[in-house]
Amino acid sequence: MAVDPLIELRDVNKYYGKLHVLTDINLTVGRGEVVVVIGPSGSGKSTLCRTMNRLETIESGSISIDGRPLPEEGKGLAALRAEVGMVFQSFNLFAHRTVLDNVSLAQIKVRGRKKEEADQRSRELLDRVGLASQADKYPAQLSGGQQQRVAIARALAMDPKVMLFDEPTSALDPEMINEVLEVMQQLARDGMTMVVVTHEMGFARSAANRVVFMADGKIVEDRTPDDFFTNPHSERAKDFLSKIL
Ligand code: ADP
Ligand code: MG
């Protein structure tokens, strides 16, 4: 893929106290690329995601989004968080707000949109994730899969340049996983730049341009899915794949 880098991490190191949680991470994510991050529990996948929108600070190295270093604080940081959409395992919707409000609130607060404008955009996005008819419900009235699709719509409403997904289907009942993965597949087809931490290997095979395999805070392999799944190089990856496939 011709690289037009949207995210660049250079020699990134992060510690939690004495724990060296990210070691010499070098990663470039091109515009429109889908990078799936896999690896054992505790290998640093969530931390990696969280550094990319500065939910975590780093001790050394550099991270830039669209050619600009991550801002330290203040307005720049709020703008960055809007540009880097994040979807977590837990959906974190506002329980006492309708689905529509959940998607509109940050647009009004962070993007400065008028309520009517925000609501219109929210309805478009709810339609896109298959929830047009649920706009006036409250989160508790929705299934887990539906709530996660609202969370995706909410992130998209900020017009992000990139979407980070950290195990978006791990908390879902099995029958709801596909409806969320399908929304993500569609986003990928529409050209969204995505970094996705997941154990869904079917998704990795079909949607990813690259698979990044992490172990012990290091990127051990960074290859195409075909190449990775048919011919993992490292013992760590072979061992991991033998346990999950
Ligand atoms: P993964 O997402 O791959 O399971 P994480 O990034 O969550 O891994 O965690 C990587 C390592 O950092 C683990 O050993 C975890 O226990 C540790 N860790 C994560 N968050 C914190 C924290 N806030 N403080 C201290 N240690 C943490
Ligand atoms: Mg994690």
UniProtKB/TrEMBL annotation:
Q: What does the record say about its membrane topology?
A: Peripheral membrane protein
Task: Fetch the PROSITE patterns from UniProt.
Answer: ABC_TRANSPORTER_1 (PS00211), ABC_TRANSPORTER_2 (PS50893)
Its annotated compartments are: Cell membrane
What are the recorded GO MF terms, alphabetically?
Answer: ATP binding
Pfam families, per the entry: ABC_tran (PF00005)
Domain of life assignment: Bacteria
Query: Which keywords does this chain's UniProt record carry?
Result: Amino-acid transport, ATP-binding, Cell membrane, Membrane, Nucleotide-binding, Transport
SUPFAM superfamilies associated with the record: P-loop containing nucleoside triphosphate hydrolases
Where in this chain does the record put each ABC transporter domain? 7-241
What the entry lists under InterPro entries is as follows: AAA+_ATPase, ABC_ATPase_HisP-typ, ABC_transporter-like_ATP-bd, ABC_transporter-like_CS, MetN_ABC_transporter-like, P-loop_NTPase
The family line of this record is:
Belongs to the ABC transporter superfamily.
Give the matching PANTHER family. Answer: AMINO ACID IMPORT ATP-BINDING PROTEIN (PTHR43166), GLUTAMATE_ASPARTATE IMPORT ATP-BINDING PROTEIN GLTL (PTHR43166:SF9)
Name of the featured protein: Amino acid ABC transporter ATP-binding protein
